[in-house]
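Repro:
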Amino acid sequence: MSLHRDGGARWRARAILVGALLSLGGCRSLARAAFIPPEVTVADTKVRSIGLRGGALDVSLRVENPNDFRLDVAGVRYVVWVDSTQVATGTVDRLVTLPPRSTTLVEVPVEFVLEALRVVMVRFVASGTVPYRVTGEFQYVTPFGRLTRPFESGGTVRR
């Protein structure tokens, strides 16, 4: 009889373990559903340098974390567009912490080639305005795992 009890006890222990794991998986799914993606907008752009081969900008992204918990940004992939022309692309792998219910500026260094600058200048001289947008995705480290969410923001540069 002791073999039967031990087998029954092991079966119950396994059933409890499986139930607990399923519950944790359900909680994780609910937590992911409760995650509100941060709002990302371009706050500012500054020309860092211009040379014979291209140049560099510093783009400040305003990131608003509406969640009640801290988020860590593990990386940012971005594409900079002027009108419909892609002028720069890149990745930033730097940890940035977004406190709960707050706004944080995330600095993104952007390098572009001279041909891209020529396209921008021709459009700017012709019309006096240049529409731009920054698209990409943030990789967040949350209490319930890594999440990747897209963003898009833009504006117009005027004379």
